[in-house]
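dude i think i finally got it to work??
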Amino acid sequence: MKRIILLIAIVLMVCHSAYAESINLKSYQQGDWASLLSSAKGSPMAIHFWGVTCAPCAKEMPQWGKFVAANKNANLIFIQVDDVSPEMIQQMLTKANLGQAKNYYVNFAFDEQLRHEIDPKWRGETPITILIDQNGKATRKTGPMNFSQLQSWFRS
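look at this
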């Protein structure tokens, strides 16, 4: 009986490890904003801030998954801002088919200093998407995304 329990535990650990490795999830911290912006290299980029506990975010994330699948060359970054476990983030990303997207999570309290670094006028509401054009000009879009407008924005 002990061997069976041990075998089950090993199988669960391997499955959990494989599941965790299938998600591209990196830590986001203060100071990362400048490096994310420089990674655009003169091309348009959308950075979407969302939360696991945000009902509009949960509803919208599968639409982001479809957008990513249909627009593979679009430069998109997703940053999860809630204080939740990485497993909860991974579950939501998997459900939305965003496991292989550029995913970040804030691994400490999402405080005023961090928000101010990103956008001094941002009060922390989610969902919010910051669009960075090819010249580096940022435009903030609060609330759910209009994906046909986003697609047009990337093409312009």
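Confidence is low (pLDDT under 50) at residues 4-21.
im so relieved honestly
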